[in-house]
Structures are given as C-alpha cells and as structure tokens.
Specification:
This protein is α+β, with helices and mostly antiparallel strands. It folds into three domains: 127 residues, no CATH class; 61 residues; 80 residues. The chain is built from seven helices and 23 strands. It has a six-stranded antiparallel barrel. A hairpin with a 5-residue loop joins β8 and β9. The longest helix is centred in the middle third of the chain and has 15 residues. One of its GO terms (cellular component) is outer membrane-bounded periplasmic space. This is Flagellar P-ring protein FlgI. Keywords: Cell projection, Cilium, Flagellum, Signal. One of its GO terms (molecular function) is structural molecule activity.
Length: 370
C-alpha cells in the first residue's frame, strides 16, 4: 500500500523540536544506499618539464605514448628513430567522481609519475581521459600542475629533495563528461547504511524517524541498515531526505575495545573497558657492574715485591619497588590509567600488561592489535 507524503510546516516543527536535545544528526551517522562516489583513473603525458622528465632509455612506454600521440596529429617519425626526451613524463591520473556530478562540472585531479621522472614541477598535462571501473570515460583532464615538492642536485651526485616532487595536482583540472548511474529515486523506499554497525543505533534511528514523521515510516533491517518509506517524486524525495538527515538522536555507545598499534606503541582504551579482580606485578632486576683498577704496591723498598694493578669489580643488584597493584572487580578506565601511571609503565609495558590481563580472562574488552 503506497502512502502519499505531504511535507508541511508542522512536520518541520517536529524536526526542530526533536533536535533540541544533545544528540547527533542522522547525516553524521549514516549514508543513503546508492549515493556514493566513484573512482576514476587514467593515463597521460606531462610535457614542458625542465629536463626532469623520464629517461626514455629506461621507460620505453613514454616513447611509445609520445609516438602514438604524434601519429594522431599526423606526425610520423622515420622508422628506427629513437627520440631522447627529457621534458616528458608518463603519468597516472586519479580522482573521485562525486554522486550526482553532472557534465560540465570540474574535479580536482592528482597526477603521479609512472617512470623515473625526477620532478613534475612546471609541467602541463595533455588531454587525458579518466575511466571508471566499467571502462567508460567519465571525465577529461588537462592543465598545469601544482607541485608541492622540490628537488635539486649537484654535479657530484649529491641531491636533496623536499616532499614529493613526482606527484602534483590540478585543481579543477578534469571536466565531467558523463554522469554516473545511480539508483536514487527508482524505488519506493530508501535504505540508510550506518557508518558503524550497531543494533542499538539502528533501532534508535528507526524510532527517531517514526517519532518525527510518523509510525511505520522506518524500520531496521539489521545492525547497519534502516529501510525508510519515501515519496516517489524526485523533488519530494529530496525534500524528504533533507528532513530525515537532520533528525537527531542519541546513538548507541560503542562496545568495550582496546586498540593497540604495535608499530608506534599507541594504546587507545575505550570508556567501557572493565577489569575483573586481578593482581599485576610489573618490575625488573637491574644489575650494575662497575670495574675499578686498584694499584697494589710493596710495603717497603726492601720487601722484594712489585707494583701490580689489581682489578676490583663492584656488582650491585637492585629491584624496583612499588611494582605490584591490585585491580578490584569492575575497575573503570580512569582507575586503570592511574594504576599504570603509578608504576611508571611505558607504552610497551602497558601493552604487555593488557595482553596478560586478556589471557587471564580479567579484561572485559576486545583487544585489537593493528
């Protein structure tokens, strides 16, 4: 049974009243299924470089591309000719085609060297197509590059490079030639996909929409998707989504997690992390050995002894104190941090303590190592 939707000022008032509480908007929690950007990629030539282009003897595809382009303009080189170019570089192009982008709109393009060009500074990209995953051309790129990096070298082979001079951008350098297909408006309903799957948030999103617009408007499909009945008219659907995405609600809180970066030693502990009753001993033995040379001399000139150097080793063993602490049942994040700071544990020590608590079954959280 199809519903007829009428957007009235009363409905807008309900939305504004719902947003008074401290909460998050639906547009910050979810996206509309089918409304997405599409990746575009291309290949081209950058010309006009100041001797910093590809070494054509090592990058034959640059010569092949140049000869192919010249042939399209009616320029044919004698057979066996091998141009030694220094001001041309073969490059890859990539950009994102936003949802609902229309022909004639401009896109920023990133240009990256494919060969051994030292720098793309001062170069210009010749007209190059940008294709989607389906092989169709969706945009055409051309223009002067903006390069943030810089490089300089001496005759003795020394060289200094600041940032990455082999990558540049062309702001507004691509023109959209074809709109990407989208399923928006082709069905009687829309689906909202949460950025992070959560059953509580999915339920609350559906409840907030039903409370603001009317019962039966939305219902959760699973932990990440909510189906919303929407008007079929394109103009009405745009207005309807404008209202829906500004509805506010209190999302469900994330599950207890501890994220550990094994490369940098960074540890992030969520607020719901709890520890059951456990005792932790953390410490180490420090052994210090000091070698001192002592001189032994005879007691008198007639004793017949000789002066010798006698090694004297001083060995000291110390153990750090205050390295054992107790976790009571249900300890909170703040108490965990205070206990660890009291013993002066470094990030590496904290990781070892958390892993040991997990193995002991005392850590009520998911330990994720990235």
């Amino acid at each position: 049974m199809n519903k007829k939707w009428l957007l009235t000022p009363f409905m807008l008032t309900l939305i504004l009243m719902a947003g008074v509480a401290q909460a998050e908007r639906i547009k910050d929690l979810a996206t509309v299924a089918g409304v997405r950007s599409n990746q575009l990629v291309g290949y081209g030539l950058v010309v006009g470089l100041d001797g910093s282009g590809d070494q054509t003897s090592q990058t034959p595809f640059t010569i092949q591309s140049m000869l192919s382009m010249l042939a399209q303009f009616g320029v044919t080189l004698p057979p066996g000719t091998n141009p030694q170019l220094k001001n041309v570089a073969a490059v890859s192009l990539h950009t994102n085609l936003p949802a609902f982008a229309k022909p004639g709109q401009l896109l920023d393009v990133t240009i990256s060297s494919l060969g051994n060009a030292k720098s793309l500074r001062g170069g210009s990209l010749l007209m190059a197509p940008l294709k989607g995953a389906d092989g169709k051309i969706y945009a055409i790129a051309q223009g002067n590059l903006v390069v943030g990096g810089f490089g300089a070298g001496g005759s003795d082979g020394s060289r200094i490079t600041i940032n990455i001079p082999s990558v540049g951008r062309i702001p507004g350098g691509a023109t959209v030639e074809r709109a990407a297909p989208t399923p928006f408006g082709s069905e009687d309903s829309i689906v909202l996909n949460l950025h992070g799957p959560d059953f509580t948030t999915s339920k609350r999103v559906a409840e907030a929409i039903n409370s603001a617009i009317g019962m039966g408007t939305a219902y959760p499909i699973d932990a990440s998707s909510i189906k919303v009945n929407a008007p079929k008219s394109h103009s009405q659907r745009v207005m309807f989504l404008s209202i829906v995405e500004n509805i506010t609600l209190e999302p469900g809180e994330a599950s207890a997690r501890i994220i550990v970066n094994s490369r940098t030693g960074t540890v992030v502990i969520g607020r719901h992390v709890r520890v059951t009753s456990a005792a932790v001993a953390h410490g180490s033995l420090t052994v210090t050995i000091v070698e001192q040379a002592a001189v032994s001399q005879p007691t008198g000139p007639l004793s017949g002894g000789t002066t010798v150097v006698v090694p004297n080793s001083d060995i000291e063993i110390s153990q750090e104190t205050n390295r054992m602490f107790m976790f009571n049942p249900g300890v909170s994040l703040n108490e965990i941090v205070q206990a660890v700071n009291q013993v002066g544990a470094a990030p590496g020590d904290l990781i070892a303590i958390l892993e040991a608590l997990k193995e002991a079954g005392a850590l009520r959280a998911e330990l994720i190592v990235i």
